Amino acid sequence: MSMSANKSSPARNDNRNEGDIAVDLFPFLRVYKDGRIKKFVRHATVPASDKKTPNGIVTKDVVVDHDTGVSVRVFLPVDAAEAAGKLLPLVVYIHGGAFCAGSASASVFHRYAESLAARAAAVVVSVDYRLAPEHPMPTGYDDAWAALRWATATSRRRHTTVDLWVANYADTTCVFLAGESAGANIVHNVALRAKDGIDIEGIILLQPCFWGTERLPFEKPDAWRRATAPMLLPERLDALWPYVTAGAAGNDDPRIDPPAEAIASLPCRRALVTVATEDVLRDRGRRYAARLRDGAWGGEVTLVESEGEDHCFHLSPKPNLNAVLLMDHVAEFIAKGKTTIPTGLMMKQRRRHRMFDGADTEKMTSRAAQTGLTVERSGAEVMENLILMPRNKAHNCPRSADVLKSSI
């Protein structure tokens, strides 16, 4: 889920009697007992353009599935591509919006994808997936999977609709899946589909939207550390997944509450998970990262915490040093590029995949991950076992002035 504080802000609350509400997903939408749906998030849109932006990006829209009409917006960092002399990382970006709002052309997500392409020097493919309730989940998963297959096949020149931007500039051996909130949930579930045939270097989950049937500590009202309620309320999150799946699934569904076994079967080598300390969803993100770290996955995981921020703060157009620092972490994660998976780890992952797919029903035995969990916080002091970003130190953000203009 995500929302922006500018042109993508929710419309003014209406005055209908609360007793008339059947499903309350404010600040995204409300469903009334008479069947009416009121959508509160109205995104201004930005057209694609082959005119280079000040930060060196050109964009275009491409239909990737003519049967469904699903399209992507491709962001090409022209200057970086010309200067690099080599193929650039490929990032498939999936926007948030509670599975029911947003688009690749929405200004808030266009702006972020453009900044990501410029800052990370990567070819970014932003997925314009179909939305609930008109297209219940798992339609969003299917559309994102189609986009991933298109992007990786296109740059290998094995697709019937070859896109020259992706084919000529993107490195399909250095693929990342990235998304915030509901988009991060889609990243996790699409990554699980990529066990065969698509090599994913890393996943980037920004304040991921996971939920469940039991409350974690920060989801309880007495845990909130401020006078005002958080942007996302637990009782509304309770209704989200049943609604966007058209009643086909509850909050015990492994797609919204991924079990340790599913997380351990992820086929990627690296993971970046970020949370905001004032976000109700933060404990879900922390638990996901901990399961990567402590379970049988065996890859490299990094957890970044943004101090004093709420859900999807990084999408706000207002200057925010924490948003700049978060973009720095994402760019550095991508810049690390390709890593080699050890042969032993590859064999263990294949065995776990078979087990998770039902080929082996024996109980999976967990073991400590080979690499530890790096926890980073922006706007905090150094503490034991944590790598924390000092508050407002200029030397930790050498490009602050420039990045504030172009990255958020």
From TrEMBL:
Q: What is this protein called?
A: Alpha/beta hydrolase fold-3 domain-containing protein
Q: In its keyword annotation, does this UniProt entry include Transport?
A: no
Entry keywords, A to Z: Hydrolase
What the record says about family reads: Belongs to the 'GDXG' lipolytic enzyme family.
Which InterPro entries does this entry report, sorted A to Z?
Answer: AB_hydrolase_3, AB_hydrolase_fold, Carboxylest/Gibb_receptor, Lipase_GDXG_HIS_AS
- Which PROSITE patterns does the annotation name? LIPASE_GDXG_HIS
The superkingdom listed in its UniProt entry is Eukaryota
Report domain Alpha/beta hydrolase fold-3 positions.
91-314
> Is Hydrolase one of the keywords?
yes
A single Gene Ontology MF term assigned here is: hydrolase activity
